[in-house]
Amino acid sequence: MMEGMAGLEGVEQPRRRTGTTAARWVPSVADERAMQALETVGDPTVDEVSLPSLPESAATARRLTQAVVLRHWALSAQLAEHAVLLVSELVGNAVRHTGARTFGLRMLRRRGWIRIEVRDPSRGLPCLMPVREMDVSGRGLFLVDKLSDRWGVDLLPRGKTTWFEMRVTDR
Questions:
Q1: Which DSSP state fits 48?
Q2: d(CA 128, CA 134)
């Protein structure tokens, strides 16, 4: 890493020049961690991945989302930013409110849409609360409601899947 760049996770590192050759892309620390999360946990576009119900799993879910949305699906940075934020909110709710040992994460893409799902064993329904300007908690589903095109909850025989969908432009 270049001197003075430590701690700038998520910021693309400058391209390095060697002599007169063209600049080559150097992945940022965030890119490397995202790819490592895919290798360690699995690819949520292939099958649901299971994560422990721990606060640090939100970071893993964010990295997986970044890797899939930006690298695998090659979608816009703004869409990726919103998807990363929203998956973090759904995972946070699963970790804080369900009492589960694990939760599942799955990402789907179909023509014109992406869908991200968080499955947990609780049948307790999430509740969209009114949010006031000075509130410091309870904004998760409010953000999901505002930034996604649609969201919902599917009750399962054992638990539920909370999901959101976002429109994408197919090339």
A1: P
A2: 17
- d(Cα 24, Cα 13) in Å, to the nearest integer? 11
Amino acid at 67: A
Q: Report how far residue 80's alpha carbon sits from residue 67's, in angstroms, rounded to the nearest whole number.
A: 9
| Cα 106 to Cα 161: distance, rounded to the nearest angstrom | 10
Handedness of CA 99, 68, 44, 169 (dihedral sign): positive
pLDDT tens for each residue of 85-106: 999 999 999 999 888 899 999 9
Q: Are 151 and 165 in contact (CB under 8 A)?
A: yes
Q: Are the C-beta atoms of 141 and 153 separated by less than 8 Å?
A: no
Domains of the chain: 45-167 (3.30.565.10)
- The more confident residue out of 147 and 132 is 147
Torsions phi, psi for 25 (to 5 deg): -70, 135
Instruction: Give the separation between CA 63 and CA 68, rounded to whole angstroms.
Output: 9
Other beta carbons less than 10 A from residue 91's beta carbon:
27
Asked whether the predicted pLDDT for residue 147 surpasses 70, the reply is yes
Q: Count CA atoms closer than 13 A to 70's CA, side-chain side.
A: 21
Q: What 3-state class would DSSP assign to 148?
A: coil
Task: Quote the pTM value.
Answer: 0.77
